[in-house]
TrEMBL record:
Pfam families: ADH_N, ADH_zinc_N_2. InterPro entries: ADH-like_N, ER, GroES-like_sf, NAD(P)-bd_dom_sf, Zinc-ADH_QOR/CCCR. Residues 10-315 form the Enoyl reductase (ER) domain. Keywords: NADP. It comes from Cryptosporangium japonicum. It comes from the Bacteria. This is Zinc-binding dehydrogenase.
Length: 317
């Protein structure tokens, strides 16, 4: 089968089309023939070599989510899955290929009316946005700031906050035109990347960016405000970022982290299933930036690096 591997960490040119034997599902696993593969911000971070501690080596096939048809099942998996159309989480890699392996616990049937590209745009990001808001104890009436709203997690967080009764939904983004697109999805205030604009303080900050500006956004928390960091697109915050909390000590602010790894697969599926159904009804929008052939994975990453992507790029074999 055709697959894309990281031959050299760094630039998108290090991604190469290779031939690999089609893998066989092991016990508890399924083999999925891909229809659509999501290109996530974390894939670009892994390719750049900035994600440490997971032991990625040259030859790594990136990609963590795929939609397609179950082609085979391993020992212990119900054979009635074969032929069913599913969304799957493949872990920290393996999805940029004509076929991918996933744990049977990490697959969910896709509604007939949901295009595969939409499934891989919502499948991971939707539950991350949902549980990040829950982790921030978001409640109706809270003002919410989504930092890094133009990506697939942010786009879902904006919609969920607006639908959940937020009193304001602010976003950071790099251009006025993106701001308008985010307003159409439920944003009510548009800030630039540095946080210029909007109100002085927010009850909830969902931060997908981290990096050197994190302390400034900690400073935007209202009394009893909660920040939840879900990503680090701009890298680690300064080592002393916790100092930004001290001037707000008497305002009882909280700064926390959220990873979907701490939510069970069945709980993530429960949210995902509802979100897929909401998307079919037109109540939740997945924003597919562009669909490209799998062979153009390097182009997809170049577009990510150039900041061109609003929503998610999807690859098709
Ligand atoms: N917590 C979890 O369970 C979980 C799960 C999956 C992924 N993640 C993390 O989520 C992140 C990727 O999320 P995503 O795919 O939604 O985002 P994304 O598409 O990679 O980026 C979202 C937006 O951030 C803005 N941005 C990019 N670089 C920036 C910078 N240096 N400073 C400020 N803004 C910047 C860009 O919008 P503008 O140009 O409009 O500003 C971009 O469109 C990764 O860090 C990944 O590790 C977390």
């Amino acid at each position: 089968m055709k697959a894309i591997a990281i031959q050299t960490f760094g630039s998108p040119d290090g991604l190469a089309l290779i031939d690999l034997p089609t893998p066989a599902p092991g016990p508890g696993q399924v083999l999925i023939t891909a229809e659509a593969i999501g290109v996530g911000g974390v894939d670009a971070m892994i390719r750049r070599g900035t994600v440490q501690g997971f032991g990625f080596t040259e030859g790594h096939v990136p990609g963590s989510e795929v939609a397609g048809v179950v082609a085979a099942v391993g020992d212990g998996v119900d054979p009635s899955w074969v032929g069913r159309r599913v969304w799957a989480f493949t872990g920290t890699g393996g999805a940029y290929a004509e076929a991918a392996i996933a744990s049977a616990e990490e697959i969910l049937p896709i509604p007939e009316d949901l295009p595969a590209a939409d499934a891989v745009t919502l499948g991971s990001s939707g539950p991350v946005a949902h549980y990040a808001l829950a982790h921030a104890r978001f409640a109706p009436g809270d003002s919410v700031l989504v930092r890094g709203a133009a990506g697939s997690i942010g786009i879902l967080a904006v919609q969920l906050a607006a639908q959940g009764g937020a009193s304001a939904v602010a976003v950071t983004t790099s251009s006025a035109s993106r701001g308008e697109r985010l307003r159409a999805l439920g944003a009510t205030e548009v800030l630039d990347r540095a946080g210029e604009g909007g109100r002085p303080e927010y009850d909830v900050v969902i931060d997908i960016i981290a990096g050197p500006d994190l302390p400034a956004f900690i400073g935007r928390l209202a009394p009893n405000g909660r920040m939840v960091v879900v990503g680090a697109i701009a890298g680690f915050p300064p080592a002393d970022f916790g100092a930004a909390m001290l001037p707000k000590f008497r305002q009882s602010i909280s700064v926390g982290l959220f990873s979907a790894d701490t939510v069970s697969a069945s709980d993530r599926h429960a949210v995902r299933e509802k979100q897929f159904a909401a998307a079919v009804r037109g109540e939740l929008r997945s924003v597919v930036h562009e669909v490209l052939p799998l062979t153009e994975a390097a182009l997809a990453h170049r577009k990510m690096d150039d900041g061109e992507v609003f929503g998610r790029i999807v690859l098709t074999p």
